[in-house]
Fold:
Amino acid sequence: MTATTLIHAEASPRRLLKALASQEALLAIAVIGLAIIVGLYNPRFLAMRNLSDVLLGNAYIAVAAVGMSMVIISGNIDISVGSLIGVLATVSGTLAVEGAPIIVTWLAPLVVGILVMAFQGAIIAYLRIPAIVVTLGMLSILKGGLIGVTGGKWITDLPDSFHLANIELFDAVPMPVFLMIVATIFAAWWMRYSAPGRTIYAVGGNAEAARLCGISPPRATVMVFALHGFFAGVAALLYATQLRVIQSTVPPNLELTIITASVVGGVSILGGVGTVIGSTLAAILIAEIASALVFTDVSPYWIRAVQGVLILITVIADILRRRRMARA
Amino acid sequence: MANDQALRETAAPPRLSVYNIEKSFPGVNALTGVSFNVAKGEVHALLGENGAGKSTLIKIVSGVFPPDRGEVIVDGKPVNLARPDDARRAGIATIYQELLLFPELTVAENVFMGHAPRAGLGRLDWRAMREKTRHLLAALEIHDLHADRVVGSLSVGNRQRVEILRALSQDARILIMDEPTAALTEYDVTRLFDIVRKLKARGVAVIYISHRLDEIFAIADRVTVLRDGAHIATKRVADTAAAELVQLMVGRKIESLFPKITLPIGGPVLEVKDLERRPLTKRISLTVRAGEIVGLAGLVGSGRSELAQTIFGVTPAEGGEIKIRGQAVYIRSPAQARTLGIAYVPEDRGTQGLVRPMTVRENFSLAALGKVAFGGFIDRAAERKLASDGVKCFAVKTSSLEQIAGKLSGGNQQKIVLGKWLANKPKLLILDEPTRGIDVGAKAEIHRLMGELAAQGLAILMISSELPEVLGMSDRVLVMREGRIVAEFLREDATQETVGAAMMGSHESAEKVA
Amino acid sequence: MSAMSEIPLPQIAKRVAPWWLLRHETMLALILFVALIILGALNNRFLTLDNLLNQGRLTTEVGLIALPMTFIIITGGIDLSVGSIVGLCAILLGYSWKTFGFPLPLAIAFTLVVGATAGFFNGVGITRLRVPPLIMTIATLALYRGLAEGISQARSVRGYPEWFYFIGQSDLFGVPAQLWLLLIAIVVAGIALDRTTFGRTLYAIGNNETAARFSGLPVDRAKLIIYTLSGLMAGLSAVVLVSRVTTTRSDMGIGYELDVIATVVLGGTSIFGGVGTIWGTVVGLAMIQLLKNGLALTGVKGDATIVVIGTVLILSTLVASLLQRRRGV
Amino acid sequence: AEKRWDGADDLPVNPLACSAGEASAAPAAKPYDGGQPTNAPDKAGKPISLVDVPKLIGIGYFNATTKGMQDAAKALGNVAAKTDGPTEAKIDEQIKFIDNYITSGVDGILFAANDPVAIAPVLKKALSKGIHVVGYDANSTPNAREWFVNQAEFNGIAKAMIDSMANEAGEDKSFAIVTSTFTTPNQARWIAEMWAYAQKCHPKLKWLETVEAQEDNNLSFNQATTLINKYGDKLSGLFGMTSVATPASAEAVTKAKLCGKVAVVGLATPNAMKPYVNADCVKSVVLWNPVDLGYAATYVMRAVVDGKLKPGATSVEAGKLGKLNVVNGSEILLGAPFIFTKQNIKDFDF
Ligand SMILES: Nc1ncnc2c1ncn2[C@@H]1O[C@H](COP(=O)(O)OP(=O)(O)OP(=O)(O)O)[C@@H](O)[C@H]1O
Ligand SMILES: Nc1ncnc2c1ncn2[C@@H]1O[C@H](COP(=O)(O)OP(=O)(O)OP(=O)(O)O)[C@@H](O)[C@H]1O
Ligand SMILES: [Mg+2]
Ligand SMILES: [Mg+2]
Structure:
């Protein structure tokens, strides 16, 4: 008994240290540190209003990154998500303009998102075509299909009640930020404490071993993609209700931004490793960097280069941290 | 022998029986009508050469493959084992030969994947999971493996232990173990057998596969011998002897198991002085001479593989000195080690030794590409010749040179890994568990080969967890413990007791003697 | 379900056809052939030598990059930064010529060096720091494009001497000049992959990197070489592109990475590594370009064309993999 | 914090006079500088097939130009027009589209260039195959096409924008700009002309910063919001340089509850701007009528094929639009930019 307590006493400060040295902590420190540094240069950056605007305008990326992280942890990847968000936003907006009940316009993207992604997941899992091929193909199909169907006509005249993103809870927390937090916490909890949540890690870590543990990897893949579709639906909703115009085209490079958030958040592209808290923090960091560069008067021509360097630094810091951990 | 009585007394149907199982893969008839049964509380051993079909048989019983024909019956009722989950529901737990683990997850989670304890709302109970894992570890008297360690950072031996924990955690009625001790030392084997005996007493039926005959005699009640996918015989262990089993297995007589010939020993090929590589290699000094076989014994995790990999340049040294034939060298990579004439046959053939999806031909030439290429261009004919020579020399059981290497049985894979290095004509051969998972016939073959190679002046450093092998093959035995070389014995001084005591350290050896 | 489709198919297939017929590349070539016939029948301007050669001209830039990308994907890696390297190299070609005053041939050499360096930098991150390729190149995708924007300050450079347009716009023995470059590169890459120890090393890395390392193969060096090569070819591609369109812009090459990856993957190279051929990539390249062209000539509009391309990518991979499921363990 | 903005294309700026009303100064007469097709078949009065390759398809603006072309085709009766192009504004893709249509054999190509220089070789190839080439919206180098239909001259747009801003925000206030990318030729040119015109006529206006937001709604919104937060009270105006950036900027101002405090002026299509104009958050939206632009381009093409518009001509008849003037050697001017206000915006639907 004494022996075990001893081990515990030894283990817990170590575990604390380990937690502090995690990718999530690193990102949280980066988010706060960057805010402080930029705040010193230009105090306006720290205004509540600005910080909340950074979150507000990018919450949809974080929400989509939650689903993307699950997909990547399960050993897959999805590059069609940007196109899908474009499609779902259009679906939702079209319904709203056609006068569908508001609740329908909000639920429709979720349902369609789940269906489209589950379909892709099924092709990947049961026909066994690599995810990158299916989603690359789907990227084209959705993108071309959207333009073909809508002719790129913008959706305007959206009813006021449609604008979910304008709702503020308790007069303080904007809906998108609220949803981002809820989605992250829910997903984090679910992936840690539910059996299906763990199967994502199992399948991503070693699909064959998972099969021998009684997990059905194909079913897990479909499940992960369906969930990803759900989060893409939420993201599309936030995207669509932000402005009073919906473009009916695919947001450029959105998939890359979302994947970047996931991998900077510490999700291993090889599958089996990562958390959604990390990816949400990374999405926030990336958004914060974009805003910070404007606030610090970095020449607009160099903004993207600086962004690239900062992402590179985050990634390399993570790799070095992991290596140090491995050798400790 | 109380068990024999139990066997006779129970008129109840056997716990598990398989009837007339047939299974073929493209180009191979892996099983041709195999039947046998296991009673409640019986340990039933499966024996056979590499590729005899043992793993295939148990994979059918575990629901991994569907059989082409035949039936699996549990407690008198035929069961349809379409998926591994069905087998688990039928009370069957399996330790597979290939370590199938989740490298990114912790020991506890690996053990309980798929059947984790739940708390309210279907929530996983992490605390209970860790707690139960600790209990299992305690039951096996494993003190150096923590439930929270990430499996990817464990040595092969520890991974094998995790596999065992996983099977034990399922509270199965039928426990299948496919070479569970291949990566374990005697110390672990003893603990495992204690557990198996306890399970047996509880009425669990156990199928046990091993190439180590002594284990079969130590634990099994009956033994079934397979050869080329066919059922050859089922014997009661009490009524048979090793020689008979070997003959049944290979269909001929095997001479001596450890045909050690003493040879004149030449000058030093490898000299290591104060070699350091944190955290596991600490101030190691040793010498291996031409024509000499040096055995390296130690417990799981004692750092033998780490040492070998430091010499081989996988994890370059941080201090100390390595000399090859008197020349001081600094080895930064395996590529460099190879050009210096060092060969390393790693312990984990699945991930380190073999490129499983590539063909037998390609695997054979992998370490000797320079020998079959001219100016960087591969000479296909020379490559084929190299590979077919290797297949012949090592009697690799393969349908063709273009067979995917990963589809061969475990033992045949090992032969390819060994063969590919010998094709490079090295001066120093480091063997890490060279006969793990290899049948007696092939093992004798490999041992004979080692003798021949030494006779040709090759220096051999052999890491083995099988003490009889170390004792039988080595000119000298080094013992490692916690990253240091703690003892050295000449062939004549090395015995089970002396070497074992050095491996354990003083207090544990005292325990073992007691 | 999965076990069922796993085993019997190759058996059946094996009995009815020789193995090479079942290769992904062969299947794809057959599909391509059928598509060509159909599209040719629908439009008499499609199957003309002129048109086909012209398509070759248009696809050279992607093709040049797809070759080293095949190497990279065979090792289980990926390079997402190629499009950005094209942009950076294009800018530096113009910038070094106009602002540094380099003579144009020197500027071209400089551009190639810059491309190779950018690729080398990726390789160093991947081999020395062990950053996973996707992450490394996602970061440099942003970085290199950012450098292109920062250096160019949104300016384009034009007015190159007439001889420079030879590379991108003229014919040599009746074949577009840049197509010769591509053809040579294809032959070299094909031989390197199929016949040399270097190629074998790439396959070994893709199938089992640890075992390749433990077999004494120069794993890190091979990786460093292929990422550098990828950057170099992106640089070459930039030169060809600038010569073809006569100007430099910092947004050149945007989205190339996806075109290139689609080409390679369509050609049967497994994104998981270990499997793939140059020949497959060439068929994939021809397939995408000719389908786009043939459909356009037949009157299919751009948005519908990309829907068709997406569908073909999925379906052809499906058909090929169903018929060819014989590798893998 | 902005240095002189020169449009990054090294072309001279040409600011208009400060006084109101005079939208375009009399251009200095310039000789014809367009190209000519070689051996174009004589199709005068005969049916012709045209293809229109805009910068990209699937955005409201080019949908409107397409509509204008279809209207014109119907009115003319002997023109079949089709629009096709890349789904993203990529010059590389656009070149491939034009190349394909050259191969498939059309009588005329209408284009709006993603890059004036890069598109030139393929257009010259078209000319060399006897295909007529007319540009609209975004020009190429002059000798790569016959005519260019100019919706409004850069300096005219610049004047309208700056005058509106000075008027709404105040003569001595500060403003910032949200544009697509710095490399987009039209936007870059407009900004350069705005700079020149502001220097000349509204020297006290303070120019704070220009940010990129591509053609992306949400990014434009985020960038506009960032500018508002960064400058606070200092910011009195926002320019939207694209039809995407302007409504997004208006939304950002609305969300920040700064309507009336921060003026939004920009190029935009009326439908997207109606909510903000009706709510008095935006007073003036600058644009030409893109439907008319497409219409005019088609008429010009017909006139070229019919031989009615030859080098040296000074005007061309364009159906319901009446007579359009030739400026700058080989450009046809659609007219002065149009300014939508609360009074007239309801009359437009595109
Ligand atoms: N998935 C597979 N595809 C093709 N052939 C296979 C497959 N699995 C096993 N085989 C073949 O079936 C035969 C029996 O193999 P199995 O693994 O059952 O042998 P084993 O008795 O377990 O041998 P070892 O003692 O070496 O582990 C071998 O010839 C092997 O090559
Ligand atoms: N004190 C320790 N600290 C960290 N890791 C340890 C320690 N002891 C053992 N290990 C683990 O054990 C491994 C060392 O085992 P290694 O394979 O080198 O030894 P071995 O004697 O060859 O054992 P095996 O017979 O299992 O191969 C290391 O990779 C490490 O994961
Ligand atoms: Mg076996
Ligand atoms: Mg070892």
Q: What stands out?
A: The longest helix of chain B spans residues 186-201. Confidence is low (pLDDT under 50) at residues 1-9, 507-514 of chain B. Residues B 25, 28, 30, 48, 50-56, 97, 397, 407-411, 437, 439 surround adenosine-5'-triphosphate (ligand 1) (CB under 6 Å). Chain B has three domains: 1-91+173-179+196-251, 97-171, 268-509.
